[in-house]
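[stage:ingest] chain + small molecule (magnesium ion)
[stage:ingest] validated
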Amino acid sequence: RVKDAGRNGVRVFEPEWGTRSNRRLALLEALDGALASGEFTVHYQPQVCLTTDRIVSVEALLRWNPPCHGAVSPAEFVPLLEETGAIVPVGRWVLGKACRDVAGWVARGAPVRVAVNVSYAQILHGDLVPALEMALADSGIDPALIELELTESMFGQEIAPVAQALDACRAMGVSIAVDDFGIGYSSLGHLKRFPVNVLKVDKVFTEEIHRKDRDAALVGAMVTLARSLGLRVVAEGIEVAEAVEVCRVLGCDLAQGYFFSRPLPAADVEALLRQDAAAAGAGSAA
Ligand code: C2E
Ligand code: MG
Ligand code: MG
Ligand code: MG
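[stage:predict] done
[stage:export] tokens:
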């Protein structure tokens, strides 16, 4: 990032440095009050069962449309929310919104499970369990419809508060998924220690799975591991039909990715759920 020491040994910084920190500051400023101003929405991406080809669940993905910037990726703004602690109220809002949307779909005859991403900060602040209790009580949905996705890096943090929060969630009937499995802090000891139900295989392992035997072998080993621990496997980042087939053969339970659908607004995903149910009904009638 820093150019070689120039004449007189003076270091010349790339102009983008200044731009990048200006952007960071501008985004931090814009994020302050974004929740109150209603700038966040939640999109949903289908997860398809590889045995039945039906959509059985959706992942809730936060979206932010600030008035004075274009849409900003959660990969960029979620870390900023985590840094300022604003992920606590925003994460609480996402849980509430996802549960309300599922309640609506259930009521209108398009039932589906929902997976919600959770940050370590929500657990550390002691907000995850009460937020979940409130979201469940307000929406009245069955807790078995909820899955919480935790990134593996979370398991590298202080263990006791995470274990305690996850035990409480499990006791409510909510399930737990390890997101981005296989990258970051991949400690098998943590899998033994935490009450996990699902492994989500990161897309670095699936994006070339149909072209690289090595990647297929790695995912096959993850499926074997998951089986021996009684866990389900979700393959993330599936973009092509060939990758679906390899994941199916390897024994992954669910697959998620642009091949099936991009993340969609709530109304669009509801239409997709209806279409999926109608197609399945037509299939069984035939
Ligand atoms: P993630 O939980 O691993 O979510 C999967 C990401 O992969 C999503 O990016 C999704 O749009 C993208 N994706 C899905 N299918 C494909 C595919 O076939 N190809 C490719 N290349 N990408 C695909 P997104 O929506 O930009 O979210 C990025 C990350 O931001 C998420 O990664 C998650 O870690 C975080 N995030 C999103 N929403 C929330 C939230 O409500 N709370 C927290 N704490 N984090 C969130
Ligand atoms: Mg996720
Ligand atoms: Mg992931
Ligand atoms: Mg990710």
